[in-house]
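Q: I'm writing up a methods section and want to include an example of the input and output format. Could you take the sequence below and give the corresponding predicted structure tokens, formatted cleanly so I can copy it straight into the document?
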Amino acid sequence: MGSIMGKAMDDNLAKMQAFQLNTMQMQLERQLQMQNQMRERMMAMQISRARETLNYFGAFYALVAVGGLGATLKRKTPGPILPLVPLTFILAYQYDMAYGTMIQRMREGSEHIISDEYNLLNLPAGLPTFETIEAARLKQKGE
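A: Here is the clean output for your methods example:
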């Protein structure tokens, strides 16, 4: 009688463990999916922000260019258009960020760092452990 009861309990335990494993796996998959969707939304916001910044900076650049060219023609000296030199580099950077391949180059650079220079990503003093977190919590609490 005891072995029949024990076998049934073992079967139920195995089913419960399989159910818990399946539930944990599904929860992890959902968390990964949520984190990826949040990352995608943040990237989209950054690209959108870069495009909006480009619009404002492009208008500023055009204003400086027209004013500088007008002043240069009036004064017959190239001084008023000199600010266009650094502003052109800034405009090119903003354009590359908004519509160019900068994000692809950044991704490739990141992949290179992860694969070939992983030691640069190590945290000082290593990963926190439960013990270090608990010790800090107790210390802050005054225990």
